[in-house]
Amino acid sequence: MTERGFHQIAYVVTDLDAAVRSWADVLAVGPWQVWTMAAPTLLDQIYRGEPASFGFRHALATSGHLQFELIQPLYGPSVFTDQLREYGPGAHHIGRLVDDHPAAVADLLDRGFVALQSGRFGASADGLFAYFTPPDGIGTTVELISPPSERFPPDYIYPSPPTTKEKSP
User: Where are the domains of the chain?
Assistant: First the structure.
């Protein structure tokens, strides 16, 4: 199993647009790409071992070598809704990129991790994500991520990239 390592920290928020503006304008993290993840483009949704229907909006930005993710649940049972109900907004998970998602999932399950939620995504429908609770009370959720070979265009980018006319010579 080839792993590319942990690269992401994610936060659950109640207002994604406000959080994106705050992280960009106050913390200078960005630009943010924002997507809506829901059926029919979010596939094979599983929540706590059962087929499910959930939707969320999320935003991604990179600062240095670290990717930040902000997530706002929209509907349905999910680990994000659980977070807001049980703890409120805040840090949710660390994400690890993996090349062989099925092998990485099997490895975590063999080591006693508990599967929480998973799905398939992307314009190519080959992106995979899965969330787990580690054994021994480590205190954070772990996500395994295999990015899709083709993403849908984002709903928007903040701050907006300059248009051709706005670019400096």
Answer: 3-160
Six token digits for residue 151:
């993403």
What's the pLDDT tens digit per position in 115-160?
Answer: 999 999 999 999 999 999 999 878 899 999 999 999 999 999 999 8
Q: Is the overall model pTM greater than 0.85, yes or no?
A: yes
| Number of alpha carbons in the 13 Å side-chain half-sphere of residue 4 | 16
- What is residue 138's predicted lDDT score, i.e. its pLDDT? 80
What CATH code would you report for 3-160?
Answer: 3.10.180.10
